[in-house]
Amino acid sequence: MSETKRLLEAASSLSQLLRTRGVRHAFHGNVLTALLTDTPQSDEMFCIVEATSSHPHPFRRVREAIAGSEDFKIKHSTWTDRLYVTYHRFIPAIEIEILPSGEAGPRHLDGTTVMRIHGIPFLTISEFIRAKLNIWMIRGLERDAQDISYVLSRYWNRVDINRIPEQDMNQFIIGHSSAASAWTALKRKYGM
């Protein structure tokens, strides 16, 4: 079984548990790029979870949704304030980092920020580029840059430029000229 299929199965199982509890969520990471390119290999998946007024921090909502599941285990790093969900149905197990909405992605996960692929909620193209650009600005990893370049180059016409931080993208383009023509076309489309 390909790594991408394994990640999708883990995402589908986690999504089902979260949906049952009414928890809005969306996945992203290089698994989305792998789906768009029909590539069997990917190794990164995040799950953004929306907070509510009654449960302001999404980590609690995830812990409640997973409680009692034999397939998932939770690891909370209090030192770094990170939550990881591990899917144990496969060997090796699959780890998914849980991220709070608003910090690592859009504040609200709805029809404008989420799209479905294979029945699984993923960030839209615009939100994916925004999230990956944010990660790239922090980590500076080439694999994040490749995801941004590929998705922007292929799907620039589906990007809402209002969701992309212009200064960050301009800085990205300086070192990644392969995405420059798509960025220019997108700016032209919006009259910039």
CATH architecture of the largest domain: 2-Layer Sandwich
The overall number of domains is: 2
Q: Could you tell me the mean pLDDT?
A: 92
Q: Within the CATH hierarchy, at the fold level, what is the topology of the largest domain?
A: Beta Polymerase, domain 2
From the alpha-carbon coordinates, what is the Rg to the nearest angstrom?
17 Å
Choose one word for the global shape: globular
Explain what the structure shows.
It is a single chain. With 192 residues, the protein is an alpha+beta fold. The protein has 2 domains: 1-123, Beta Polymerase, domain 2 (2-Layer Sandwich); 125-191, no CATH class. It is built from 7 helices and 7 strands, in the order αβαβαβββββαααα. The radius of gyration is 17 Å and the shape is globular. The termini are far apart.
In short:
With 192 residues, this protein is an alpha+beta fold. It folds into 2 domains: 123 residues, Beta Polymerase, domain 2; 67 residues, no CATH class. It is built from 7 helices and 7 strands.
Lay out the secondary structure.
Blueprint: H1 3-20, E1 25-28, H2 30-37, E2 46-49, H3 58-66, E3 72-77, E4 82-87, E5 94-100, E6 114-117, E7 120-123, H4 125-139, H5 142-155, H6 166-175, H7 180-189
